[in-house]
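Students often ask why we bother encoding 3D structure as a string. The short answer is that it lets us treat folding as translation between two languages. Here is a chain of 256 residues written in the first language.
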Amino acid sequence: MLTLPTLTWVVLAVGAFLVGVGKTALPGVGTITVALFATVLPARESTGALLALLIVGDLFAVWSYRSHADLAILRRLVPTVLVGVLAGTAFLAVADDAVVRRVIGAILLVLIVLTLVQRAVAARRQAEATGQEARVPAGRRRARAAAYGVLGGFTTMVANAGGPVMSLYFLASRLPVLTFLGTAAWFFFAVNLAKVPFSVGLGLITPQSLLLDLLLVPALLLGALLGRRLARRISQQVFDRLVLALTVVAAVYLIV
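And here it is in the second language, the structure alphabet:
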């Protein structure tokens, strides 16, 4: 690891920086990091190295937004995410990597369209309600949580791509910026911790990969600090648009 070329270190440092920004300000950037790490490291080894960095980023995000998480949403998601993880495990047993990535990319594009349609319908209904707040029925909220939870568990299991799916769910739930980031922080901290035993068992997390991560932590912290400042200044409209744009980038990357 310590003999890697200078350009490789630069790419990894940029990736670690983006992990910090993604965890504290712009969910969806993480997919760019996945691409960067897989470009300069062997694909399998890159997933283990990235997982440890993601957990460091999760810790920083949880500490930064610990009082903003929507615990009710998290409780609704847990059972369905587990179902998605099991479905993803079964899918991996019969599908190759190329099929997996394209299926997830297609799912993301469909979800983006559905999110935009739901927002347009909700805006029209709210306008027709003469200023009264548009409320989503409890049954529909539960069904939406179940659908996104299964998809989130499925995608995070098969391609570490659960971030964009859950970002769309949090957008659909109309969470304010800080609540969005706090809820996502706790969710992904729990999910990534659950992956650790499997990654260690597969030999993806090793002393060498942990040493690499240790050297990249300063870049991650720099990105996290910048992200915190950005998150507290960014408007809700700009935040929502950036999340959608980054999700489109993630979907196209997975398909191509």
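Translate back mentally: Residues 28 and 163 are 6 Å apart (CA to CA). Keep this in mind for the problem set.
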